[in-house]
Design a protein that fits this description.
The protein is of the alpha+beta class and about 375 residues long. It contains three helices and 21 strands.
């Protein structure tokens, strides 16, 4: 077979002639060969172009494979977070998480020392059963580790108070929000039944929006007694918290007929726009509250006329907990006790029968000199 060179490739002579349109057995002249070579190049170029376009069109028409998107739930990536803790009945402590959680038994440490006998977990509320009951109202700290079902873990250190199942019936009964040379701003609490004050918590504000906080220690009280809580104390030796003897405190405004307590590190109560509240413990149920404000609502005012978003939050907290009665669906300053006219000698108080309808009608301002801290209230009403 005769072989001829075509560029860099070796082809049979007859293949080259037929491909270039030459009769078999002839090669044609050089000029014709070049013409045929050019023609062959054009044909080959068109073929390759058509082939590539065909591939492009086919690939464009082909349906791409379906790929399922991977969706990551942030809740599966974060560990359980403790949102609250509270001592309960039967020597138990309840831990509330934002998702189902499991407690690592070996990580649990309670100070002062309490021993955990049983753990019930795997839910959003986990329960620890203790070997013994804590002291009512006494503060304890719990350190532990929690994990979720995917193994995400978190550590926490949180305080709780010994469970008190003998909380007395209590009312905020009288208060002054203007201090003087002889008296501090103060609140009187009336005791309507026997019990123990351990853990009972007073807030200026509410437990969700607290401005001032005072947690009472464990001590016994009886029906008909009174407690006086003094604010912005001066640090004198006579500012003694009384749990047995009502006569030992000699600080400014102390009463020999009431248990006196001093809210150290606090300032005066708000003079004309705030909430006072009592709870069974710092995170417990509300026992009593009073809303007072001298504000006047006008159409278009922000925060329903209460002045600040924080104040409106306090008011809404009372509404949500059913601790105060409002005239309509939305709260306004007109629903509050108006403290206008009250002074250090003209207190704001309930009547002598401890009337409690959770509304402004329970309250009045007494004339000068008629404040009765540590005793039954006066029914006399101040007239400007």
């Amino acid at each position: 077979m005769e072989v001829h060179s075509y560029g860099n490739r070796s082809l049979p002579g007859w293949w080259g002639n037929e491909a270039l349109g030459c009769p078999r057995g002839t090669r044609g002249n050089g000029r014709g060969y070049r013409q045929y070579r050019v023609l062959f190049g054009k044909l080959l170029g068109r073929f390759l172009l058509s082939f590539c376009l065909g591939l492009t069109v086919c690939s464009g028409c082909a349906r791409p494979p379906h790929i399922e998107p991977i969706l990551l739930d942030p809740a599966t990536l974060t560990p359980p977070q403790l949102v609250g803790i509270q001592a309960g009945k039967g020597n138990t402590v309840e831990l509330r998480f934002d998702k189902s959680a499991w407690i690592e038994p070996r990580s649990i440490k309670i100070q002062p020392s309490l021993t955990v006998r049983e753990i019930k977990d795997g839910e959003t509320v986990c329960t620890l059963t203790l070997d013994g009951q804590g002291v009512p109202g006494k503060k304890y700290t719990l350190e532990a580790q929690a994990r979720d079902e995917r193994g995400n873990t978190s550590e926490f250190l949180y305080g709780f108070y010994g469970f008190n199942d003998r909380i007395p019936s209590l009312l905020i009964n009288e208060f002054i929000t203007t201090a003087a040379t002889t008296v501090l701003t103060q609140v009187e609490i009336a005791i309507l039944s026997d019990g123990n004050m351990g853990g009972v918590t007073f807030y200026e504000g509410t437990k969700t929006v607290p401005d001032k906080t005072f947690i009472f220690p464990s001590f016994e009280v009886k029906r008909g007694e009174f407690i006086l809580l003094h604010f912005k104390p001066e640090g004198t030796p006579g500012e003694i918290d009384e749990t047995t003897d009502k006569t030992i405190a000699t600080g400014k405004g102390a009463s020999p007929t009431a248990y006196d307590f001093w809210a150290k590190g606090t300032g005066n109560l708000s003079e004309d726009n705030d909430v006072l509240s009592l709870y069974s413990n710092p995170e417990g149920r509300i026992l009593d509250a009073v809303l007072y404000s001298s504000k006047v609502y006008e159409a278009g005012m922000k925060y329903n006329g209460f002045g600040t978003s924080a104040m409106l939050e306090k008011v809404l907290a009372l509404k949500e907990e059913g601790a105060w009665v409002f005239a309509g669906p939305d709260p306004y300053p007109s629903d509050a006790v108006n403290p206008k006219g009250a002074t250090s000698r003209r207190s704001i108080c309930r009547d002598s029968r401890f009337t409690d309808t959770n509304s402004k009608t329970d309250w009045h301002i007494v004339p000068s000199g008629s404040a009765t801290f540590g005793a039954v209230n006066s029914d006399a009403v101040y007239s400007p």
